[in-house]
Amino acid sequence: MRIIAHLDMDAFFASIEERDNARFAGRPIVVGSDPEGGKGRGVVSTANYAARAYGIRSALPISTAWRYSEAARKKGLPPAVFLEVNMRKYGEVSERIMEIVRAHVPPDADGVILVEQSSVDEASFELSFAGSYEKAERIAREIKKEIKEKERLTATIGIGPNKLIAKIASDRQKPDGLTVVSEAAAEKFLEPLSIRTIPGVGPKAEERFLEKGMRTVRDAKRLTKAELTTMMGKWGAELYEKLRGRSDAPIVLDSVQKSIGEQTTFDEDIPVNGKLKDRKLLEAALAALAADVHKRLRREIAAGAPFKAFRSIGITVRFSDFTTKTRSVTLKEPVAASDTTAQKTIQFQALRLFMPFMDRRENPLHKAIRLLGVKVERFK
DNA sequence: TCTGGGGTCCTAGGACCC
DNA sequence: TCTGGGGTCCTAGGACCC
Questions:
Q1: Alpha carbon A248 to chain centroid, angstroms
Q2: Alpha-carbon gap, residue A16 to A10, rounded angstroms
Q3: Backbone angles phi, psi at A349, to 5 degrees
Q4: What is the spatial distance, in angstroms and rounded to an integer, between the CA atom of A340 and the C1' atom of C1?
Q5: pLDDT in tens, A7-43
Q6: Which domains are present in chain A?
Q7: A327 strand C contact, CB < 7 Å
Q8: pTM of the model
Q9: A122 is catalytic
Q10: Residues A36, A70, A122, A191: which is the catalytic one?
């Protein structure tokens, strides 16, 4: 019998900040980009539950979050505390939590501990060795307890016959929850849920189901495998199985990174008007991104990444109207990150790819630029 | 409401080769 | 004079996830 668990930390970034700043205890906390008094351009990364009561949630524009907080303040409620993302700290906490999980999962026949970290605050892992859902549930409770004791943070765990059900189950009762869905119960468990709860079904796919008058998994199950394939492409056949609670996706250990990139959104869009000052600003931003990407690449390699060179360089350009263009080039020969000229190569190619956007060729309307990005890929 | 930053995967068309 | 088929590589765009 296969038993899989999925762990999801509750309001992870916000909970860590709340834990580390006693003076914020009980306050609404919003971790994200700088709200700049309501003029900031970023989004909310994580809001704690007190902030969610104000309607503030992940991915909400930070300016909107600021307004919600102000509205609450005017009603005599405590305003939200806005904090910047401290990824280094969250990464360290994440590593300790993953170690707690790993300590509860014995190695398989090949000596491998089957824990798949899917993001900084989530992991799927094997509990088949437990032999029963009751035993699996006890192990999950121990993991939650240990995280609470050692890190003073709460986690929600879902248990099911595969990664799909475990993940969806972990989303049902939050925070500090534990949901078990047996293989026998899986199909009925999914039926009343929105089609959007299936990982991989996003806003666009949801829209296409809604056009057919289908909102729930139960509705979507009326489609044949062939109809789903016509609708979704290659993925349709897999979705057909998922709608029925079936998935044989294995637990995979950390996969090799395929690209490293950095992007930056300007505080104000940079005009493209031929003025030297703005041109210099854009070129400097690109050069800084190239340098940062190179630095990160070298750091990854130093930390043991299984590659040492890249072959492809790409840029992203987002205009004031949010339209986004990408350009990339693949070189004949890989460039070793340790080459003295590697950083210059990234910078030179990024600039070369960007040039046409500064004039009529790629930017006939001279739209102002909101964001620039640089990345390297095709590692060797 | 006005939209970050870090990624992965898939698709489609064109070039090129046999 | 009316133009195959398949495979691989590259580029651009888009959907999706946290």
A1: 23
A2: 10
A3: -65, -40
A4: 57
A5: 999 999 999 999 999 999 889 999 999 999 999 999 9
A6: 4-10+88-183 (3.30.70.270), 14-85 (3.40.1170.60), 188-242 (1.10.150.20), 259-377 (3.30.1490.100)
A7: yes
A8: 0.95
A9: yes
A10: A122
